[in-house]
Amino acid sequence: MQSIYAMHQKHADSLEKEEKFLLMSIENIQDLYLTMLSAMIEIRQKEIEFLEKSAQKFTATPEEKNPNKKFVDNAVLELLSQSESIGTALENRKINNWQLNDDYILLLLAAVKQSDFYEKYMATRTSDFEQDKEFAVALFEMIASNEKLYDYLEDYKLTWVDDIPLVNTQIIKQLRAIKSGKDQFTVPKLYKDTEDRDFVSELFRKTVLNESELSKEYIDKTPNWDTERIAEIDTIILKMAICEFLRFPSIPVKVTINEYLEIAKEYSTPKSSIFINGILDNLVKDFQTKNKLNKTGRGLL
Questions:
Q1: Which intervals hold domain NusB/RsmB/TIM44 (predicted)?
Q2: Domain 210-289 has CATH 3.40.50.970
Q3: Sign of CA dihedral 91, 96, 99, 100
């Protein structure tokens, strides 16, 4: 939807160029995922370095010589640091944001050490795996909610702004799912399979190449609306939904309607979802009457 909207705004005519940018933007979701995940690893590493330097000072105190290492020995943080899957992905995608901007890591580390959850966790020198996991989750939630980090991510890559909630939710879900220190933390695949990736290009191309034809399907279904006054985002959403209705037989009608209503609520006007829902409901009835919905499989209507 955003890519089609961008094409309209730029009056772009290179479908291949815009499709390439679309796919690249999706690939960047994994870069954001790795950037956020690696922040936890780098924070732990900075604390390790701090403790080592403190212990080596000529005037080191007994506490500095024998510090509480509960934070750096946290089983979940250690698991992340030793994960081959994460290490390989960071290397392959060339993610080095925090090596180049370690001031953000130092800022985050300072905020963590001033927090109540850190003070409570470090009150003793022992813990079990569940306590370590809860601390790791709280640590990530604090990282994810840091405004300065958010500003950095927004400035670094504009397309990341909409992806941050998705990525943060995924990471927290994975952290909570870890059962023990023996679990392997694996970087998830960006696409479920090749068919999943192909869908991105197909929906984009089929919508863009058939915009005029798709728009004819809803123009006479808006008697109380001047088509020129319909929000542009709404027209794009309608075209994409109609495209799925007519050209993607394996996608259930209800799934299409629900997903585009969610997009409308997030990106369009307050009344858009009601307007779009009404149009799509009428279209489905009309398509069913004319036998234009050629859906395959059970429960697709």
A1: 192-285
A2: no
A3: positive
